[in-house]
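[job 4471] stage=fold_predict status=RUNNING
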Amino acid sequence: MEEINVIRSLSALAHEARLRVFRALVVAGHHGLTPGELVDKLSIAPNTLSFHLKELSNAGLVSQERQGRSLLYRAAIGMMNELLAYLTENCCEGVACMPMQALSSNQLATMSVNTMTDMTKPLNVLFLCTHNSARSILAEALLNDMSPLRFKAYSAGSSPRDNQQPNPLGLQVLQSVGVSTEGLRSKSWDEFAAPDAPQMDLIITVCDNAAGEVCPIWPGHPATAHWGYPDPSEGEGTDEEKLEAFKQTMFMIRRRLEILTNLPHEKLQMSALQSTADELARL
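[job 4471] inference complete, writing structure tokens
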């Protein structure tokens, strides 16, 4: 099983509701479950369930089959077995595993923090778009919330308007999922080309306009990538439809960030970072 597929699978399962859905389908086995049965069993709203089933399907963990007027979902047992085989390959160098000494949750948390601190300093990531009001703001806030020990995210625009502010709908959808919006502001990318600016390790454009423009000279020759997303602020419709556009863009950005934040340490070393950025851009 390729490493990028392992990361995609683990990222899909790294959510409480999706994990519950997958486990329910594993228990159901080849009989599978319909969306209605999953709604009744797990008490998940139908729209939310549809989103999670799509995420699991995209990761190859769930299959679907139409039966009459209904869809039947099954756990992809083959993919699950491949994932388990990858995770346990050559476990304990082939020797029968010995149970680990029980550790308290506080000890485990301390171990995790200390290990991460010893391995690497946070990578500085700059997200760019044209006005720095929507997509790049969403990406900055999400990455800082998801993995503050491994990454420090920033955002900027190639040509923010005068008195530009983050789009209120973007701030609203971030707050709706518990992500802090404190300190978010629109700014020019020129700030990060100044001599006293933090040196970037990875620069990601999230709109086509910024990707095609001539960038400032970035100190330190950072890795670069382009993750194109539709501009949610350009959509028309009701207030609810505009808000939904921002939610969908946020979810799309979060999916790729989940893969980034779960990458092993060696994939984020400077010698490998450009290759990693290129792989993520193709997802």
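[job 4471] summary: The mean pLDDT is 84.
[job 4471] exit 0
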